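hey so i finaly got around to running the thing on FAD-binding domain-containing protein from Glutinoglossum americanum. pasting the sequence first so u can double check i didnt mess up the copy paste, my clipboard has been acting weird all day
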Amino acid sequence: MSFTPKIAIIGAGPGGLTLATLLQRNQIPYTIYELESGPDARNQGGTLDLHQNSGQLALREAGLIEEFRDKARPEGEALKIVSPEGEVLWNENSHGGPDRPAESADRPEIDRVVLRDILLNSLNPDSICWNKKLQRIEPGADNTHDLYFADNCVEKSFDIVVGADGAWSKVRPLLTDEKPYYCGISAIELWALDVETRYPWLSEYVGAGSCFMFDEGRALFSQRNGNGSIRSYACVRQGEGWAQDCGIDWTKPETARRELVERYFGDCAEDLKRVILESRDELILRALYVLPIGITWPSHPGVTLLGDAAHLMTVFAGVGVNVAMHDALDLANAIVAWKKSGARRSGLADAIKGYETRMLERGEENAQHSWKNMGMSFSKGGGEKMVEMLKGFGVRG
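ok and heres what it spat out for the 3d tokens, dont ask me to read them lol
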């Protein structure tokens, strides 16, 4: 007789929701436990691009690719690169959008909240338990695990617990003692809302997609979102306690933006300063953390990870969500293949181990790429290096 596993997915981010969607599509039961109180509990972040061979592939397998296509923004692929002195080094807005070879084309942008809604709406709402903050996991009988939550609820006897719970995963400690560490970069996230009406200059300057400036020890990234806003990230290479120790009073955003410009971007072009100063609607401090590149662990029956919980990397390759969704697809395929092979309990651990081997290799490759991009982004002449790399790929700017 075939065995039906009891599966817990910890976290309702893109990776966890993608896994749930794929399991549901294959009639494999699961339960998602999410610490947020509901789908609208917090802002879900900015925009991201989904790649054909990872994020889009997972959506295609989940039967959601057409809905994604309907809501994605191909024009958001347009890239603009500016030097610290204000020279426009690259501008894909100038010829109607990006013109890239097939292998690096078709990566339309989509707001994170829109992607999350696509995935959430595909799921049985009864399969998601909101406001469930996981406190710890303890071994149960026969390689199962019990989940203990902050509300004193205990859910017992899960055959598979999937940690899709991000950088500070509560599941990861069962597999490894490794913890995220500060990568040396801090970012000030700045919002400008309703830019077409309220900030027309900023809207025109950034363009339809992203605008980047790279320099030694600093960078400025701006991205257009689908809700009529632009989010900019003024980034500096500083120590982990920089935001608290630098003397800028972040509780006073107007003066904080001016001091940020004066101290760290004062010799940049006026247009770049203006990007920071015109982004007046929100200010959020972000210190960036990573897991060690090449992190591994001995496979542990009944527990595994995906996405940032498994291989947290820097944001400078723009692949984090794509890798998480690829992980989810790979794990779902492993479970489905195990089920089709007869679904004997003894084979489940081998299926998870095979998935982890592939997932950890994928994570290491992408983390190395992201770390390399971070080095280029915070180096003198980083913009020129990026342009040469794009030209090497056969891209026209």
